[in-house]
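Internal tracking record. Fields below are filled automatically when a chain is submitted to the structure queue. Please do not edit lines marked as system-generated. If the sequence contains nonstandard residues, flag them in the REMARKS field before resubmitting.
Queue: standard
Priority: normal
Entity type: single polypeptide chain
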Amino acid sequence: SLGTQVARFGNLIFKGTYQFDEIKNRTDSQTVNEKIKIVSLMVSSTIDTQDKYPYPENGFYFYGYYETAQTILGGDIGYTNIGLDYKNHVTLADVHTVTSTLKLGFGDKTLPLSQHHSLGGQNSFFGTRDFEFRGRQLFLASLQYRVKLPITFFFDSYFLARYDLGSTWRVQEQIRFKDFRHGVGATLSFDTPVGPADFSIGRSFLFKNNVPGSPVVLGETFFYFSIGYFY
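SYSTEM-GENERATED OUTPUT FOLLOWS
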């Protein structure tokens, strides 16, 4: 990789990758084992004006990239992959913070399984397991409310509530708004010396018009715990 810093809050990076990806079945499923060589070029940019981490109160974060892999470079497969991740924070009365998130991913029909976009987990989509959904296309929009609690349990503590909307698809032709999954959840977070300690509960649901008498299909209730910084 090589690049340059842009002012004090951003960068522009050019990256070349030569790698071997291998996928093996952990169970006797119908998924085909895959081992391919990928040679790709990527350009990405990060802009970060968040005032602090991991509990930003104001500012925004942007990360976008364009990646292309070509057989002419020596790889086994060619594809194009584009991604975007955006977060914006606004704080009112010093303790109430609203965060809006938008995450997009677009890959063409040759994007291999190892490079698919993923969705799911405590920090991604409430009511799902980590990386539960994967696809060449991804859409995620979230709205989060965070309040700093007036009571200190050894460390500064926060309460968070978040609503998630999104899904993944294997091909563009499958993208339909009615297939979007919804997720809601809440988190009690402590600002410990080793990073945030988060205790969360979440559940996902779908709207299904073809289910008589019950248009809402509820998923499982998930409990989450994590400690340390999220990478």
